[in-house]
Description:
8-stranded antiparallel sheet, DNA Polymerase III, Chain A, domain 2
Amino acid sequence: MKLRISRDDILTPLQIISGVVERKQTMPVLSNILFVAEQGKVAITGTNMEVELVCDLQGAEVVTEGRVTIPARKLADICRSLPNNSHIELTLEGDKVQLSSGKSSFTLSTLPAEQFPNIEENNHDVAISFNQKDFKSMIEATGFAMAQQDVRYYLNGLLLEVGSGYVRAVATDGHRLAMASVTTDVELAEEKQVIIPRKGIIELGRLLSDVDDELVISIGSSHVFSQIGHYTFTSKLIDGKFPDYNRVIPKGGDKTIIADRELLKGMFSRASILSHENIRGIQLQLSHNQLQVFANNPEHEHAEDCLDVIYEGDELQIGFNVSYLIDVLNVITDESVKLTLSNPNSSALIESTEYNDKLYVVMPMRL
């Protein structure tokens, strides 16, 4: 195999593909990127056996066809360190790849392409078409609430629910829940739910842009698939039953607070500085048109702050993990937010005051 390409044409695809490759692998070949130079085209592939990303390299010249796997991180680091607008030549010689650019030369070890695994193809039951910007916004609004390495494996991902006229994303780690929806033209006899793993959602989010281009997501029995520009994204699905999120959403709360989002986030951020480093707890105290926040830590340091809000209910004291509240306020983009509460033991429902396509639930904590 021998190919030529400009450093600028290969660097971004390498960095994106390398994001799929895990640093620590049980199989050495999974630390590599697969290069396939055939029929005048070059495709590079990275996988962690759960998520696979393929890119058709633009601007590559195939001198000699071939297939090989090359260490992902080392190759990306070398290309990143080369000057802008430089040109790269990759040549496979035996079990080594020679990379040359100007007066620089590097020799990298390889592994045979035959050892590189492919995620199995499967038939897709549903194809959903919608605005790329809307889908990106939906997963950004919910992905932060996914669990990380939870023993309840079905929480380590994002629920994608497809129904007639809508697609909904839901994530929860058991302490908080995020939900967002977008409208579509899809018509289904019955709704379909799949769970995309955390890694898949992160890598998919990196591929999406704030553009109005059409995005098609194809869902099968065990995989989800999408073609985004020059990239082909495939992810296995988590085989499990996602909790009934409707049971988690609090209903009938009689205490409603309307507050400026930026001012509220600023107050929480200040209080978090002196909150307990591990449990991150803060106390909220509600009174007529006023919200007070209190925080302290084992060093006997104390924070107290106050914000004018719209609130006409009874007085209430309730504790929360301040990080969860800040995470929600970071993804809501409207000027003001609505918090609905009922008692110190009930979850808070947080929504925008302008739109109803997103909602957030945060469980209280005892302090």
